[in-house]
Prior knowledge:
Helix content of chain A: 25-40%
Distance between the termini of chain A: 12 Å
CATH superfamily of chain A: Class I glutamine amidotransferase (GATase) domain
Oligomer: homodimer
Largest sheet of chain A: 7 strands, mixed
Number of strands of chain A: 11
Number of helices of chain A: 8
Strand content of chain A: 15-25%
CATH topology of chain A: Rossmann fold
Number of domains of chain A: 1
Amino acid sequence: xxxxxxxxxxxxxxxxxxxxxxxxxxxxxxxxxxxxxxxxxxxxxxxxxxxxxxxxxxxxxxxxxxxxxxxxxxxxxxxxxxxxxxxxxxxxxxxxxxxxxxxxxxxxxxxxxxxxxxxxxxxxxxxxxxxxxxxxxxxxxxxxxxxxxxxxxxxxxxxxxxxxxxxxxxxxxxxxxxxxxxxxxxxxxxxxxxxxxxxxxxxxxxxxxxxxxxxxxxxxxxxxx
Amino acid sequence: xxxxxxxxxxxxxxxxxxxxxxxxxxxxxxxxxxxxxxxxxxxxxxxxxxxxxxxxxxxxxxxxxxxxxxxxxxxxxxxxxxxxxxxxxxxxxxxxxxxxxxxxxxxxxxxxxxxxxxxxxxxxxxxxxxxxxxxxxxxxxxxxxxxxxxxxxxxxxxxxxxxxxxxxxxxxxxxxxxxxxxxxxxxxxxxxxxxxxxxxxxxxxxxxxxxxxxxxxxxxxxxxx
Lengths: 225, 225
């Protein structure tokens, strides 16, 4: 039985969208694990557009779904179409897009709001006991949605971000870039990726291991259908 | 001695820039090989901007160097600054950016013109007998610049593209996605990647093997300095 995994993208570029390396490494690890991947993103304007050469905000407007299609090579769907019944696992790569487009965690910390359809699919997956993987800053989205269940997560070791995540109700555990944290009970896997970096080989190792853990969880207890 | 490798990007997104997966997989393979990478791109407007969700051209204007910075996480330099004396090898990922921004091969085939600074660094590397790796459609750029030396290259098995490359003076050799073609004499390595695809794991395998071949060549005969 082929594992069906949803990946939620948040644009294309770490300063204003999905972190590109993390997203590609996630797609690669899932493909290598034999999973059938569907990419999703919210169909909304980006909260900001950043010139990645200068690091400064530009006056352009770009759409999160349209820019996500660059990473997904055109194959990306509105996250409103994501259904837990159609998926065995869900993975959220990081990048500022998770904290600006999937949520406003970058601006509001523990008081953030999560895009309603992103929040819905995360809640649906959790309720169905299907595993969720969250990379880099994306655990903040999970913490905000599922904080009431007090999941254990990592965003590496940044004290301010860890405190904001704990302010959402989650428990934070420090973790090196090559590794990952598993909350077996909540079925949530997280890895710091470019919250720590700095090198792509270390980010890749953490993501490969985290994705294998997500896939292993999904295979160990496939949902009834 | 750390190997210094230049990577020439051509934007961010396969329809109008560098193929994102190929670029990231190149950066990963180089980092894993212990190479120190410098990314370069031409500082010019993109020849086109394509909405990757619909596949249609949009009226936006974007800059190749600025968009390439999304893949390079901000660390990308004008290709005019690339010097063969500072590099041990050069790799060109693919995507339509290679055929629209690094050259106009997509429009003119064998009669294409290559961006002058891209042509210069490719010629400099070749003259210095330093290895060049070309991925996907990027061998067309190499064929156009070095056609007079008749390098053997692959772009997979597309007859029209292969004929255009041979029209530049190169020899084309069919190759499966997981593999690569080496011209030992010219020190040029090529792999089809998403010219064939379709899956990222196969593209990754071909790129990993091609990059290892480039690195091996560079290590086997380091240039005097």
